[in-house]
Write a structure and sequence with these properties.
The protein is of the alpha+beta class. The protein has 5 helices and 11 strands; from the N terminus they run αββαββααββαβββββ. The protein has a single domain, classed as Oxidoreductase, molybdopterin-binding domain (Sulfite Oxidase, Chain A, domain 2), CATH 3.90.420.10. The chain has a 5-stranded mixed sheet with strand order 2-1-11-5-6. Strands 3-4-8-9 form a 4-stranded antiparallel sheet, with no helix packed on it. Strands 7-10 form a two-stranded antiparallel ribbon. A hairpin with a 4-residue loop joins strand 5 (87-93) and strand 6. The protein binds the ligand Nc1nc2c(c(=O)[nH]1)N[C@H]1C(S)=C(S)[C@@H](COP(=O)(O)O)O[C@H]1N2 and molybdenum atom. Molybdenum atom is lined by residues 50-52, 141-142. The site of molybdenum atom has 5 residues, from loops.
């Protein structure tokens, strides 16, 4: 086809994706469609404050962050709470905005917070906009990172020598 006719068409929507990477066995790049098809969808109705704009109310749907990250197989012994509690998750948006969670905040044996990777907000699919982090336990909206591009799994490294075993 000619260049002119190609330009006159509406450009196809680009589907956003995020990558789970870092201290994991199986890094994965996932579209919002993958997040919808691959895991049970949970719902959250939330209210959060923004320092600059006042309170916000949103309805979200999406998989639990915990389940998506567990499927990438973080390099911890899944049976050992102390081993899991060394891990952190750094979440970044397409604009470079970043925030951090402790793995223990979302681990069922610790904070058990129902943090979501949203696939839908206020009835609209996020396939083009990208997934948004939903942190219902937060009073402030600053960790609701939108247009997520990366979930980096990190670990506080083993010390050179253990002070005490276990
Ligand atoms: N990618 C990205 N996500 C972000 C931010 C940002 O600057 N970049 N700001 C955060 C802050 S401070 C708030 S309060 C909420 C605002 O969400 P809303 O205005 O869409 O309700 O988005 C959060 N998510
Ligand atoms: Mo904010």
């Amino acid at each position: 086809m000619s260049r002119l006719s190609a330009q006159s068409r509406t450009p196809p929507a680009r589907f956003a994706s995020l990558t789970v990477l870092g201290e994991v066995v199986r890094p994965a790049t996932l579209t919002v469609g993958d997040l919808r098809a691959g895991w049970e969808q949970h719902r959250a109705e939330v209210v959060f404050d923004c320092a600059t704009g006042g309170p916000r109310r949103h309805r979200f749907e999406g998989p639990l962050l915990r389940e998506v990250v567990l499927d990438a197989q973080p390099l911890f012994d899944v049976r050992r709470r102390k081993d899991r509690s060394r891990f952190v998750l750094a979440v970044s948006g397409g604009d470079g905005y970043r925030t951090v969670l402790a793995w223990a905040e979302i681990d069922a044996d610790f904070g058990n917070a129902p943090v979501l990777l949203a696939t839908r907000m206020d009835g609209e699919d996020l396939d083009v906009a990208g997934s948004q982090l939903v942190v219902p336990v937060d009073r402030c909206g600053a960790r609701y990172v939108s247009a997520i591009t990366r979930v980096l799994v990190g670990v506080w490294p083993e010390p050179g020598r253990k002070a005490r075993p276990g």
